[in-house]
Design goal:
Elements: E1 5-10, H1 16-25, E2 30-33, H2 37-44, H3 55-64, E3 68-71, E4 77-82, E5 88-91, E6 94-97, H4 100-109, E7 118-121, H5 129-141, E8 151-154, H6 164-170, E9 173-177, H7 180-190, E10 198-202, H8 203-234, H9 238-245, H10 268-275, H11 281-305, E11 312-316, H12 331-341, E12 346-350, H13 359-362, E13 365-367, H14 370-375, E14 379-382, H15 394-398, E15 401-404
Parallel strand pairs: 1-2, 1-4, 2-3, 4-7, 7-8, 9-10, 11-12, 11-14, 12-13, 14-15
Antiparallel strand pairs: 5-6, 8-9
The structure holds ligand SAJ.
Residues 124, 157-161, 213-214, 217, 221, 254-255, 257, 260-262, 264-265, 320-321 line the site of ligand SAJ.
Protein backbone atom coordinates (compact mmCIF):
# COMPACT_ATOMS: atom_id res chain seq x y z
CA UNK A 1 0.00 0.00 0.00
CA UNK A 2 1.79 3.16 -1.15
CA UNK A 3 1.53 6.02 1.35
CA UNK A 4 -1.21 8.44 0.31
CA UNK A 5 -0.44 12.07 -0.51
CA UNK A 6 -2.56 14.80 1.01
CA UNK A 7 -2.87 16.44 -2.41
CA UNK A 8 -2.15 15.45 -6.02
CA UNK A 9 -2.04 18.41 -8.45
CA UNK A 10 -2.44 17.54 -12.13
CA UNK A 11 -0.90 20.21 -14.39
CA UNK A 12 2.15 22.19 -13.23
CA UNK A 13 1.73 25.43 -15.19
CA UNK A 14 1.01 29.04 -14.15
CA UNK A 15 -1.70 27.89 -11.71
CA UNK A 16 -0.80 24.31 -10.78
CA UNK A 17 2.83 24.91 -9.84
CA UNK A 18 2.29 27.86 -7.44
CA UNK A 19 -0.70 26.04 -5.90
CA UNK A 20 1.19 22.75 -5.39
CA UNK A 21 4.18 24.63 -3.96
CA UNK A 22 2.28 26.78 -1.50
CA UNK A 23 0.40 23.75 -0.13
CA UNK A 24 3.76 21.97 0.31
CA UNK A 25 5.31 24.91 2.16
CA UNK A 26 2.28 24.84 4.47
CA UNK A 27 3.11 21.24 5.43
CA UNK A 28 0.88 19.25 3.07
CA UNK A 29 2.40 16.24 1.28
CA UNK A 30 1.92 17.11 -2.39
CA UNK A 31 2.51 15.20 -5.61
CA UNK A 32 2.76 17.43 -8.67
CA UNK A 33 1.96 15.63 -11.94
CA UNK A 34 2.70 16.85 -15.47
CA UNK A 35 2.69 15.06 -18.82
CA UNK A 36 5.75 16.99 -20.00
CA UNK A 37 8.93 15.17 -18.86
CA UNK A 38 11.09 18.34 -18.83
CA UNK A 39 8.59 20.00 -16.48
CA UNK A 40 8.75 17.06 -14.05
CA UNK A 41 12.57 16.97 -14.19
CA UNK A 42 12.90 20.75 -13.71
CA UNK A 43 10.66 20.73 -10.63
CA UNK A 44 12.35 17.64 -9.16
CA UNK A 45 15.55 19.74 -9.16
CA UNK A 46 13.70 22.52 -7.32
CA UNK A 47 13.78 24.80 -10.38
CA UNK A 48 10.99 26.31 -12.51
CA UNK A 49 10.08 26.30 -16.20
CA UNK A 50 7.89 29.43 -16.17
CA UNK A 51 8.62 33.07 -15.37
CA UNK A 52 6.85 34.46 -12.29
CA UNK A 53 8.53 36.71 -9.67
CA UNK A 54 9.62 34.76 -6.55
CA UNK A 55 8.11 31.46 -7.79
CA UNK A 56 11.60 29.93 -7.98
CA UNK A 57 12.15 30.58 -4.26
CA UNK A 58 8.77 29.02 -3.36
CA UNK A 59 9.31 25.90 -5.50
CA UNK A 60 12.85 25.37 -4.20
CA UNK A 61 11.60 25.59 -0.59
CA UNK A 62 8.73 23.22 -1.34
CA UNK A 63 10.98 20.60 -2.94
CA UNK A 64 13.78 20.93 -0.37
CA UNK A 65 11.24 20.48 2.46
CA UNK A 66 10.47 17.05 1.00
CA UNK A 67 6.75 17.93 0.83
CA UNK A 68 6.61 18.52 -2.94
CA UNK A 69 7.33 15.59 -5.24
CA UNK A 70 6.93 15.56 -9.03
CA UNK A 71 5.95 12.68 -11.31
CA UNK A 72 4.44 11.89 -14.70
CA UNK A 73 1.54 9.95 -13.23
CA UNK A 74 -0.83 10.51 -10.27
CA UNK A 75 -0.69 8.55 -7.01
CA UNK A 76 -3.39 8.07 -4.39
CA UNK A 77 -4.32 11.25 -2.50
CA UNK A 78 -7.01 12.71 -0.23
CA UNK A 79 -7.56 15.51 -2.76
CA UNK A 80 -6.90 15.78 -6.51
CA UNK A 81 -6.61 19.25 -8.07
CA UNK A 82 -6.92 19.48 -11.87
CA UNK A 83 -5.12 22.57 -13.23
CA UNK A 84 -4.53 21.72 -16.89
CA UNK A 85 -5.01 24.03 -19.94
CA UNK A 86 -8.49 24.61 -21.36
CA UNK A 87 -7.96 26.27 -24.76
CA UNK A 88 -10.63 26.71 -27.42
CA UNK A 89 -10.52 25.30 -30.93
CA UNK A 90 -12.09 26.48 -34.15
CA UNK A 91 -15.02 24.35 -35.33
CA UNK A 92 -17.63 24.83 -38.05
CA UNK A 93 -19.90 26.61 -35.54
CA UNK A 94 -17.21 28.92 -34.16
CA UNK A 95 -14.81 28.63 -31.26
CA UNK A 96 -15.58 25.71 -28.96
CA UNK A 97 -13.93 24.76 -25.64
CA UNK A 98 -11.30 22.05 -25.96
CA UNK A 99 -11.60 19.85 -22.85
CA UNK A 100 -9.35 17.00 -23.93
CA UNK A 101 -6.70 17.79 -21.24
CA UNK A 102 -9.34 17.96 -18.49
CA UNK A 103 -10.85 14.65 -19.63
CA UNK A 104 -7.43 12.99 -19.79
CA UNK A 105 -6.56 14.24 -16.28
CA UNK A 106 -9.91 13.09 -14.87
CA UNK A 107 -9.54 9.63 -16.39
CA UNK A 108 -5.92 9.29 -15.20
CA UNK A 109 -7.09 9.60 -11.56
CA UNK A 110 -9.26 6.44 -11.86
CA UNK A 111 -6.21 4.20 -11.51
CA UNK A 112 -5.29 5.50 -8.03
CA UNK A 113 -8.32 7.22 -6.46
CA UNK A 114 -9.83 5.75 -3.28
CA UNK A 115 -13.35 6.30 -1.83
CA UNK A 116 -13.79 9.55 0.08
CA UNK A 117 -11.42 11.53 -2.11
CA UNK A 118 -12.18 15.13 -3.18
CA UNK A 119 -11.64 16.11 -6.83
CA UNK A 120 -11.24 19.85 -7.47
CA UNK A 121 -11.29 21.36 -10.97
CA UNK A 122 -9.30 24.65 -10.97
CA UNK A 123 -8.97 25.03 -14.73
CA UNK A 124 -11.18 27.76 -16.20
CA UNK A 125 -13.96 25.73 -17.82
CA UNK A 126 -17.36 26.03 -19.52
CA UNK A 127 -20.43 25.67 -17.31
CA UNK A 128 -21.09 21.96 -16.62
CA UNK A 129 -17.48 20.76 -16.81
CA UNK A 130 -17.26 19.71 -13.14
CA UNK A 131 -20.16 17.31 -13.81
CA UNK A 132 -18.24 16.01 -16.84
CA UNK A 133 -15.15 15.42 -14.66
CA UNK A 134 -17.34 13.27 -12.38
CA UNK A 135 -18.79 11.37 -15.35
CA UNK A 136 -15.40 10.79 -17.03
CA UNK A 137 -13.92 9.49 -13.78
CA UNK A 138 -16.88 7.17 -13.05
CA UNK A 139 -16.84 5.94 -16.64
CA UNK A 140 -13.12 5.13 -16.34
CA UNK A 141 -13.72 3.33 -13.03
CA UNK A 142 -16.09 1.02 -14.95
CA UNK A 143 -18.28 0.08 -12.02
CA UNK A 144 -15.55 -0.17 -9.37
CA UNK A 145 -17.04 2.75 -7.42
CA UNK A 146 -20.02 5.10 -7.81
CA UNK A 147 -20.06 8.93 -7.90
CA UNK A 148 -21.39 8.94 -4.31
CA UNK A 149 -18.00 7.59 -3.23
CA UNK A 150 -16.25 10.88 -4.11
CA UNK A 151 -16.65 14.65 -3.82
CA UNK A 152 -16.35 17.14 -6.70
CA UNK A 153 -15.90 20.95 -6.73
CA UNK A 154 -14.87 23.80 -9.02
CA UNK A 155 -12.49 26.31 -7.37
CA UNK A 156 -11.29 28.79 -10.01
CA UNK A 157 -8.21 30.98 -9.71
CA UNK A 158 -8.01 34.70 -10.42
CA UNK A 159 -4.35 35.48 -9.66
CA UNK A 160 -2.72 38.07 -11.91
CA UNK A 161 0.38 36.99 -13.83
CA UNK A 162 3.28 39.00 -12.42
CA UNK A 163 1.89 39.08 -8.88
CA UNK A 164 0.63 35.52 -8.51
CA UNK A 165 2.18 34.61 -5.18
CA UNK A 166 0.77 37.66 -3.43
CA UNK A 167 -2.70 37.23 -4.92
CA UNK A 168 -2.74 33.46 -4.26
CA UNK A 169 -2.90 34.32 -0.55
CA UNK A 170 -4.78 37.63 -0.61
CA UNK A 171 -7.54 37.07 -3.22
CA UNK A 172 -11.03 36.00 -2.22
CA UNK A 173 -11.93 32.62 -3.70
CA UNK A 174 -14.98 30.65 -4.73
CA UNK A 175 -15.62 27.03 -3.72
CA UNK A 176 -18.35 25.54 -5.92
CA UNK A 177 -19.22 21.91 -5.09
CA UNK A 178 -21.53 19.39 -6.74
CA UNK A 179 -22.61 18.85 -3.13
CA UNK A 180 -22.48 21.18 -0.14
CA UNK A 181 -20.10 18.74 1.54
CA UNK A 182 -17.70 19.08 -1.42
CA UNK A 183 -17.89 22.89 -1.21
CA UNK A 184 -17.14 22.80 2.51
CA UNK A 185 -14.22 20.37 2.14
CA UNK A 186 -12.64 22.45 -0.64
CA UNK A 187 -13.11 25.65 1.39
CA UNK A 188 -11.36 24.06 4.40
CA UNK A 189 -8.49 22.96 2.17
CA UNK A 190 -7.84 26.41 0.67
CA UNK A 191 -7.98 27.97 4.13
CA UNK A 192 -4.58 26.31 4.62
CA UNK A 193 -3.00 29.24 2.70
CA UNK A 194 -5.78 31.66 1.66
CA UNK A 195 -6.07 34.56 4.09
CA UNK A 196 -9.10 36.10 2.33
CA UNK A 197 -12.77 35.09 2.11
CA UNK A 198 -13.73 31.77 0.47
CA UNK A 199 -17.32 31.96 -0.79
CA UNK A 200 -19.32 28.74 -1.10
CA UNK A 201 -21.69 28.12 -4.01
CA UNK A 202 -22.59 25.36 -6.50
CA UNK A 203 -20.26 24.20 -9.27
CA UNK A 204 -22.11 25.77 -12.21
CA UNK A 205 -22.24 29.18 -10.55
CA UNK A 206 -18.52 28.94 -9.76
CA UNK A 207 -17.74 28.00 -13.37
CA UNK A 208 -19.72 30.93 -14.77
CA UNK A 209 -18.33 33.34 -12.14
CA UNK A 210 -14.79 32.80 -13.43
CA UNK A 211 -15.86 33.27 -17.05
CA UNK A 212 -17.85 36.35 -16.02
CA UNK A 213 -14.84 38.05 -14.39
CA UNK A 214 -12.74 37.81 -17.53
CA UNK A 215 -15.65 38.61 -19.86
CA UNK A 216 -16.39 41.74 -17.84
CA UNK A 217 -12.79 42.83 -18.43
CA UNK A 218 -12.89 41.93 -22.14
CA UNK A 219 -16.11 43.92 -22.72
CA UNK A 220 -14.61 46.94 -20.99
CA UNK A 221 -11.38 46.70 -22.95
CA UNK A 222 -13.47 46.48 -26.14
CA UNK A 223 -15.26 49.68 -25.12
CA UNK A 224 -11.87 51.43 -24.79
CA UNK A 225 -10.66 49.99 -28.11
CA UNK A 226 -13.81 51.09 -29.91
CA UNK A 227 -13.41 54.57 -28.42
CA UNK A 228 -9.84 54.74 -29.78
CA UNK A 229 -11.06 53.90 -33.29
CA UNK A 230 -13.85 56.50 -33.07
CA UNK A 231 -11.37 59.12 -31.81
CA UNK A 232 -9.07 58.46 -34.78
CA UNK A 233 -12.07 59.06 -37.03
CA UNK A 234 -13.01 62.29 -35.23
CA UNK A 235 -9.45 63.59 -34.75
CA UNK A 236 -9.68 63.44 -30.95
CA UNK A 237 -6.91 62.29 -28.56
CA UNK A 238 -8.41 59.17 -26.98
CA UNK A 239 -6.01 59.34 -24.02
CA UNK A 240 -7.16 62.84 -23.12
CA UNK A 241 -10.79 61.81 -23.68
CA UNK A 242 -10.54 58.83 -21.31
CA UNK A 243 -8.67 60.82 -18.71
CA UNK A 244 -11.43 63.44 -18.71
CA UNK A 245 -14.34 60.96 -18.73
CA UNK A 246 -12.73 59.04 -15.86
CA UNK A 247 -12.91 62.15 -13.72
CA UNK A 248 -16.59 61.20 -13.30
CA UNK A 249 -16.83 59.58 -9.84
CA UNK A 250 -18.45 56.42 -11.21
CA UNK A 251 -16.72 56.05 -14.57
CA UNK A 252 -13.63 53.89 -15.01
CA UNK A 253 -12.84 53.38 -18.69
CA UNK A 254 -9.96 50.94 -19.28
CA UNK A 255 -7.09 51.51 -21.72
CA UNK A 256 -7.07 50.96 -25.49
CA UNK A 257 -4.34 48.70 -26.82
CA UNK A 258 -3.25 46.86 -29.99
CA UNK A 259 -5.60 43.97 -29.15
CA UNK A 260 -6.15 41.56 -26.24
CA UNK A 261 -3.61 38.83 -25.58
CA UNK A 262 -2.85 36.16 -23.04
CA UNK A 263 -4.57 32.81 -22.68
CA UNK A 264 -7.41 34.00 -20.42
CA UNK A 265 -9.20 37.22 -21.34
CA UNK A 266 -9.11 36.40 -25.05
CA UNK A 267 -10.36 32.83 -24.45
CA UNK A 268 -12.81 32.69 -21.56
CA UNK A 269 -15.61 34.82 -23.13
CA UNK A 270 -15.85 32.31 -25.99
CA UNK A 271 -16.89 29.68 -23.40
CA UNK A 272 -19.93 31.80 -22.57
CA UNK A 273 -20.67 32.51 -26.24
CA UNK A 274 -20.54 28.79 -27.07
CA UNK A 275 -22.93 28.00 -24.17
CA UNK A 276 -25.51 30.65 -25.17
CA UNK A 277 -24.68 31.76 -28.75
CA UNK A 278 -27.93 33.66 -29.34
CA UNK A 279 -27.90 35.39 -25.98
CA UNK A 280 -24.22 36.38 -25.56
CA UNK A 281 -24.38 39.13 -28.20
CA UNK A 282 -22.46 41.87 -26.34
CA UNK A 283 -19.81 39.38 -25.16
CA UNK A 284 -19.33 38.05 -28.69
CA UNK A 285 -19.15 41.55 -30.21
CA UNK A 286 -16.57 42.62 -27.63
CA UNK A 287 -14.40 39.65 -28.65
CA UNK A 288 -14.79 40.67 -32.31
CA UNK A 289 -13.84 44.30 -31.54
CA UNK A 290 -10.73 43.23 -29.61
CA UNK A 291 -9.75 40.61 -32.18
CA UNK A 292 -10.01 43.19 -34.98
CA UNK A 293 -7.73 45.74 -33.28
CA UNK A 294 -4.40 44.18 -34.44
CA UNK A 295 -5.43 44.52 -38.10
CA UNK A 296 -6.58 48.07 -37.44
CA UNK A 297 -3.11 48.93 -36.14
CA UNK A 298 -1.45 47.08 -39.05
CA UNK A 299 -3.47 49.19 -41.52
CA UNK A 300 -2.30 52.33 -39.73
CA UNK A 301 1.33 51.20 -40.06
CA UNK A 302 0.82 50.45 -43.74
CA UNK A 303 -0.54 53.95 -44.39
CA UNK A 304 2.33 55.65 -42.54
CA UNK A 305 4.97 53.44 -44.18
CA UNK A 306 3.66 54.27 -47.64
CA UNK A 307 5.02 57.82 -47.15
CA UNK A 308 8.62 56.53 -47.10
CA UNK A 309 10.65 54.95 -49.88
CA UNK A 310 12.48 52.45 -47.63
CA UNK A 311 10.81 52.83 -44.23
CA UNK A 312 12.59 51.67 -41.06
CA UNK A 313 10.02 50.68 -38.44
CA UNK A 314 11.01 50.39 -34.75
CA UNK A 315 8.54 48.02 -33.00
CA UNK A 316 8.62 48.42 -29.23
CA UNK A 317 7.35 45.37 -27.32
CA UNK A 318 6.39 41.79 -28.26
CA UNK A 319 4.77 40.43 -25.06
CA UNK A 320 1.00 40.22 -24.44
CA UNK A 321 1.10 42.95 -21.80
CA UNK A 322 3.50 45.29 -20.02
CA UNK A 323 6.36 44.11 -17.79
CA UNK A 324 5.92 40.36 -18.33
CA UNK A 325 7.92 38.07 -20.63
CA UNK A 326 4.90 36.06 -21.87
CA UNK A 327 4.31 36.22 -25.62
CA UNK A 328 1.44 33.71 -25.73
CA UNK A 329 -1.42 34.99 -27.89
CA UNK A 330 0.34 38.36 -28.03
CA UNK A 331 -1.26 40.87 -30.43
CA UNK A 332 2.05 42.77 -30.47
CA UNK A 333 3.92 39.72 -31.78
CA UNK A 334 1.15 39.07 -34.33
CA UNK A 335 1.38 42.66 -35.62
CA UNK A 336 5.19 42.59 -35.97
CA UNK A 337 5.05 39.24 -37.78
CA UNK A 338 2.47 40.72 -40.18
CA UNK A 339 4.63 43.81 -40.81
CA UNK A 340 7.49 41.48 -41.75
CA UNK A 341 5.30 39.13 -43.84
CA UNK A 342 3.81 42.07 -45.73
CA UNK A 343 7.25 43.69 -46.20
CA UNK A 344 6.04 47.07 -44.93
CA UNK A 345 9.60 48.10 -44.11
CA UNK A 346 12.87 47.19 -42.35
CA UNK A 347 11.85 45.98 -38.88
CA UNK A 348 13.83 46.78 -35.73
CA UNK A 349 12.49 45.29 -32.47
CA UNK A 350 13.04 46.35 -28.85
CA UNK A 351 11.81 43.87 -26.19
CA UNK A 352 13.50 44.12 -22.77
CA UNK A 353 12.04 40.76 -21.63
CA UNK A 354 13.82 38.60 -24.17
CA UNK A 355 17.43 38.02 -25.18
CA UNK A 356 16.57 36.71 -28.63
CA UNK A 357 13.79 37.18 -31.13
CA UNK A 358 11.16 34.45 -31.54
CA UNK A 359 11.95 32.12 -34.45
CA UNK A 360 9.22 33.76 -36.55
CA UNK A 361 11.25 37.01 -36.55
CA UNK A 362 14.86 35.94 -36.05
CA UNK A 363 15.74 35.86 -39.76
CA UNK A 364 13.94 39.04 -40.76
CA UNK A 365 14.05 41.51 -37.87
CA UNK A 366 16.80 42.97 -35.68
CA UNK A 367 16.67 43.06 -31.87
CA UNK A 368 18.05 46.33 -30.44
CA UNK A 369 17.75 48.33 -27.26
CA UNK A 370 14.88 50.79 -27.50
CA UNK A 371 16.95 54.00 -27.87
CA UNK A 372 19.00 52.51 -30.72
CA UNK A 373 15.91 51.24 -32.52
CA UNK A 374 14.18 54.61 -32.21
CA UNK A 375 17.25 56.54 -33.42
CA UNK A 376 17.49 54.36 -36.54
CA UNK A 377 13.76 54.49 -37.35
CA UNK A 378 11.42 56.59 -39.48
CA UNK A 379 8.35 55.12 -37.73
CA UNK A 380 8.14 54.20 -34.02
CA UNK A 381 5.37 51.68 -33.21
CA UNK A 382 4.79 51.32 -29.44
CA UNK A 383 2.98 48.01 -28.89
CA UNK A 384 3.67 47.26 -25.21
CA UNK A 385 4.04 49.90 -22.51
CA UNK A 386 6.98 48.28 -20.70
CA UNK A 387 8.30 50.58 -17.96
CA UNK A 388 11.71 51.20 -19.68
CA UNK A 389 9.98 52.60 -22.79
CA UNK A 390 8.37 55.41 -20.82
CA UNK A 391 11.74 57.18 -20.44
CA UNK A 392 12.53 57.39 -24.16
CA UNK A 393 13.23 61.07 -24.87
CA UNK A 394 10.37 63.11 -26.30
CA UNK A 395 12.89 64.96 -28.48
CA UNK A 396 13.87 61.71 -30.19
CA UNK A 397 10.21 60.84 -30.76
CA UNK A 398 9.22 64.28 -32.07
CA UNK A 399 11.48 63.78 -35.08
CA UNK A 400 9.68 60.56 -36.09
CA UNK A 401 6.26 59.24 -37.02
CA UNK A 402 4.94 57.74 -33.75
CA UNK A 403 2.10 55.21 -33.41
CA UNK A 404 1.56 54.82 -29.66
CA UNK A 405 -1.06 52.04 -29.26
CA UNK A 406 -0.95 52.18 -25.44
CA UNK A 407 -0.82 55.86 -24.62
CA UNK A 408 2.65 55.19 -23.19
CA UNK A 409 3.80 58.71 -24.01
CA UNK A 410 0.38 60.40 -23.85
N1 LIG B 1 -5.52 45.09 -21.71
C1 LIG B 1 -5.84 46.23 -22.45
N2 LIG B 1 -6.35 47.31 -21.80
C2 LIG B 1 -6.59 47.30 -20.45
C3 LIG B 1 -6.28 46.11 -19.71
C4 LIG B 1 -5.74 45.02 -20.36
O1 LIG B 1 -5.64 46.28 -23.67
O2 LIG B 1 -7.05 48.31 -19.91
C5 LIG B 1 -4.97 43.92 -22.41
C6 LIG B 1 -3.58 43.55 -21.92
O3 LIG B 1 -2.61 44.29 -22.61
C7 LIG B 1 -3.50 42.06 -22.28
C8 LIG B 1 -4.94 41.61 -22.11
O4 LIG B 1 -5.76 42.78 -22.12
O5 LIG B 1 -3.15 41.90 -23.64
C9 LIG B 1 -5.18 40.84 -20.80
O6 LIG B 1 -4.44 41.50 -19.78
P1 LIG B 1 -5.00 41.45 -18.26
O7 LIG B 1 -3.98 42.02 -17.38
O8 LIG B 1 -6.33 42.06 -18.24
O9 LIG B 1 -5.26 39.92 -18.02
P2 LIG B 1 -4.39 38.65 -17.63
O10 LIG B 1 -4.70 37.66 -18.69
O11 LIG B 1 -2.96 38.92 -17.35
O12 LIG B 1 -5.09 38.24 -16.24
C10 LIG B 1 -6.49 38.12 -16.19
C11 LIG B 1 -6.95 38.66 -14.85
N3 LIG B 1 -8.41 38.74 -14.82
C12 LIG B 1 -8.99 39.96 -14.63
O13 LIG B 1 -8.33 40.99 -14.50
C13 LIG B 1 -10.48 39.98 -14.60
C14 LIG B 1 -6.48 37.74 -13.76
O14 LIG B 1 -7.06 38.14 -12.51
C15 LIG B 1 -6.92 36.31 -14.06
O15 LIG B 1 -6.47 35.42 -13.05
C16 LIG B 1 -6.33 35.88 -15.38
O16 LIG B 1 -6.84 36.77 -16.40
C17 LIG B 1 -6.74 34.46 -15.65
O17 LIG B 1 -5.84 33.58 -15.55
O18 LIG B 1 -7.92 34.22 -15.86
Amino acid sequence: MTDKFDICVLGLGYIGLPTASIFATKGKSVLGVDVQPHVVETIKQGRIHIQEPDLDVLVRAAVQSGNLKAAAKPSSAETFIIAVPTPFHETENGREPDLRYVESAARSIAEVIEPGALVILESTSPVGTTEKVRDWLIDELAGKYSSADFHFAHCPERILPGQMLKELVSNDRISGGLTSEASARAKRLYEVFCSAEIYVTDARTAELAKLTENSFRDVNIAFANELSIICDELGIDVWELIQLANRHPRVNILRPGPGVGGHCIAVDPWFIVSAAPNKARLIRTAREVNDSKPNYILEMVRQKAARFRDPVIACLGLTFKADVDDMRESPALHIVESIVDQKLGKVLVAEPHTRQLPSSLSATATLLVAEEAVRAADIVLLLVDHKPFKSISKRLLEQRVVIDTRGCWA
